[in-house]
Amino acid sequence: MALIVQKYGGTSVGTVERIKNVARRVAQAKANGDDVVVVVSAMSGETNRLVALAHEIQEKPSPREMDVVLSTGEQVTIGLLAMALHSIGVDAKSYTGWQVAIKTDCAHTKARIDKIDEIRIRTDLDAGKVVIIAGFQGINANNDITTLGRGGSDTSAVALAAALKADECQIYTDVDGVYTTDPRVVSEARRLSTISFEEMLELASLGSKVLQIRSVEFAGKYKVRLRVLSSLENSGKGTLITFEEDQNMMEHAAVSGIAFDKNQARINVRGVPDTPGIASLILGAVADANIEVDMIIQNFGSAGTTDFSFTVPRSDYQNTLDILHKAQEKIGAHEICGDDTVCKVSIVGMGMRSHVGIASTMFRTLAKENINIQMISTSEIKVSVLIDEKYLELATRVLHQIFELDKEPEKRS
Amino acid sequence: MALIVQKYGGTSVGTVERIKNVARRVAQAKANGDDVVVVVSAMSGETNRLVALAHEIQEKPSPREMDVVLSTGEQVTIGLLAMALHSIGVDAKSYTGWQVAIKTDCAHTKARIDKIDEIRIRTDLDAGKVVIIAGFQGINANNDITTLGRGGSDTSAVALAAALKADECQIYTDVDGVYTTDPRVVSEARRLSTISFEEMLELASLGSKVLQIRSVEFAGKYKVRLRVLSSLENSGKGTLITFEEDQNMMEHAAVSGIAFDKNQARINVRGVPDTPGIASLILGAVADANIEVDMIIQNFGSAGTTDFSFTVPRSDYQNTLDILHKAQEKIGAHEICGDDTVCKVSIVGMGMRSHVGIASTMFRTLAKENINIQMISTSEIKVSVLIDEKYLELATRVLHQIFELDKEPEKRS
Q1: Could you say which residues of chain B have pLDDT below 50?
Q2: Staple A307 to which of A210, A299, A370, A386, CB 3.0 to 4.6 Å?
Q3: Helix H or strand E encompassing B78
Q4: Which fold has domain B258-404?
Q5: Which residues hold substrate (chains A, B) (predicted)?
């Protein structure tokens, strides 16, 4: 008998019919003899509806009150799912974040979980009940309701799995696992039966939206065995996210997957004096406006000047240009320009640590297709390039092919 | 400086615009120098939406889970109202039932308030904040969410006013006070500036829907000064519900108001043996089906038999007939019949205690219009008659006239 934490997102509980479906799936796990804790999101559309209501009242609502309003979405779902389980004869009980309690810090709308009380959950599990818990929400030291930010239900599930020392945390979503790349772009994309925690972390942060990055970090920190599964299909084992300890279950490949991210815009600051502190002068102004900078490159320029490039989310493109134009004199830049029709394509793989020449294969393959690389950034297990967004599909396809991602690792040449 | 508890119902907070209106009204009270605690209901339609969702999942949902789902309605309103107050520069903080905490018994969907902690409220009031509290909900000893039943927000407001020893509890609704009768039926109906607690109790229980009866009982028990006001109009003092202590503010009239109730059906059980225990035999079967019996009359019959009549809510009419037909043999009744096109009209007034002949004036007035009285029931301060529902408007009109309710009591002949 295992203890399983299952998490169902907004789409999986988006209608009464789908909630009934989830109930049947939970009942199946229970019938298999497992103890089940279920974490649910708000019904899809509900959070957006509540956000819109709040913004109709006030442009920038108080984060505390925003959390009061938003946390109702998940609260409705837990009650409805409990009813759906009762209606098929499964004993179940629902809990909001504060009832558990899931204790967080005070950062309303983006709180972090500090501690989870597990007494009520354990008692109910011991009594044979399914325990249903509202994701995305908690309670801070002032007894105020907090929320964890978008996608926070994944984090709730992983944190609960960690606190309960669950055997597995299953994230049910509208895809049936993690793929070598987006199947809508490359039809040969293959579902990975396993992926290492580190690779998943890179994929999550690189724009692959299967799992929220904080939940993956959390899983890594507490060694929670995480599995991504489809809530729409009944068969399938999904993708298991593994740790070093699970070496024997891991695929051993140089490259495991390809991620891409269209939400990128490039900013160029040309001909700035090549003096210490120039980077912080430029990026400081951007950071002060709460704009997140992703790739950063500084090139040698000519005659004591340097060229500086970085990427920002596309929605912050114009704002970033405006900020820099205002600061242009202070920075002493010759030119400030940019491009918001770029994208980032990344290859990710634990095997890069031991395989050499992976990056050069990537660059050569793109060159062969006349795809110009604008920026490069690397980590131990990934290589990212910034390219013209019109080449996104082509680049992803040829890289998928050259690294033979359509084949199981052991069948690759 | 007074401490005022204001309560706004679902219609008063039914749209974003109306929530903003409520905020302006609260701000006005605050600007007048009063401390304000606001109790709100769910936005109109929201509770019905949630009930419908639950019933789509399960015919008879678990009351505990029903409360989890239903309590979200008020939670959304408190957050939105706090935002609306912030947006006009008023410091405000919202609390759910459990945050206060409003402690109730365990009767889910119809809980009763046991105790209210007032520390958080006092602290915020002392800091100059408006405190907004979700009506209709509380928390039981198990830390489970409870709700007080439909109209429970009135009770929340009165209970809070009692706990805080507020100077006044103002119930804002879509009418501007308590009238001598429904102005849609009698255009001469006059708003009462005051009404005694006992009269209000009779009017509330007789189908006048201005205030929920439990809230009136609560106000009586804890001597909370209650005022009914319009949330749609800005002027007007509404109707103050007074106690014996406020003798000098009270209107002194034989009859204060006329209530009517269309939700009535009459059941006749004819020719039952006139033996002890026959009433409980008949009514026991009805009570076992959770049907609420209102008026009850037992007449002398002939030859050792008796006739038994009572009224039930109209929606329970057929069910009651079915139950009695099944039990007919056991009861030994000659005939079981009924009528669901009846209504109850009642005159209410503290003055009846001292004025004689009120009831006979009522009966004579109805007789003059050829309105047949089917049943009569009386209390110290009211006389109710059951009549054919087609005479409802006529009866109300002629009674309003004969008791001169359109005039202030001191101007009556």
Answers
A1: none
A2: A299
A3: helix B72-87
A4: VC0802-like (3.30.2130)
A5: 47, 74
For residue B61, the chain A residues in CB contact (below 8 A) are 79, 83, 86
Tracing tokens 């949330």 back to the chain, one arrives at B231
Dist. CA B134–CA B70, nearest whole Å: 12
Residues on chain B touching A61 (C-beta within 8 angstroms): 79, 83, 86
Mean pLDDT for back-to-back runs of 10 residues, chain A (413 residues): 94 95 96 97 95 96 97 98 98 98 94 93 97 97 92 92 95 87 90 88 71 83 90 82 66 82 93 83 86 84 81 94 92 92 93 80 93 88 93 96 90 80
Shortest Cα distance, chain A CAs vs residue B387, angstroms: 44
Tokens of B314: 């109209």
Chain B positions touching A145 (Cβ under 8 A) are: 96, 99
Contact B75, B134 (CB under 8 A): yes
Q: Give the per-residue SS3 of B356-370.
A: CCHHHHHHHHHHHCC
Residues 6+ apart with CB under 8 A from B276: none
Q: In terms of Cα–Cα distance, which of A78, A118, A387 is closest to B66?
A: A78
The answer to whether A137 contacts chain B (CB < 8 Å) is: no
pTM of the predicted model as reported, rounded to 2 decimal places: 0.81
On whether the CB atoms of residues A345 and A308 are closer than 8 A, the answer is no
- Residue B151 vs residues B105, B137, B210, B307: alpha-carbon distances, Å: 17, 11, 10, 37
The boundaries of every CATH 3.30.2130.10 domain in chain B are 258-404
Kindly state the tokens that stand for B297. 């009359």
Give the span between the Cα atoms of B107 and B105, in whole angstroms: 6
Fold category of B3-248 in CATH:
Carbamate kinase (3.40.1160)
Kindly indicate whether the ipTM for this predicted assembly is greater than 0.85, answering yes or no: no
Contacts 24+ apart (CB under 8 A), B57-61: B57/A16, B57/A19, B57/A20, B57/A80, B57/A83, B57/A84, B57/A87, B58/A83, B58/A84, B58/A86, B58/A87, B61/A79, B61/A83, B61/A86
CATH 3.30.2130.10 segments of chain A: 258-405
Q: Are B73 and B79 contacting, i.e. CB atoms less than 8 angstroms apart?
A: no
The amino acid at residue B247 is: Q
B209 is in an annotated binding site: yes
Determine the Cα–Cα distance for residues B218 and B220; give it in Å rounded to an integer: 5
For B38, the token pair is 């606001």
Specify the pairing of strand B335-348 against strand B257-273.
antiparallel
* A270 token code pair: 């040309």
Q: Boundaries of CATH 3.40.1160.10 in chain B? A: 3-248
pLDDT tens-digit map of B96-134? 999 999 999 999 998 999 999 999 999 999 999 999 999
Q: What is the CATH number of domain A258-405?
A: 3.30.2130.10
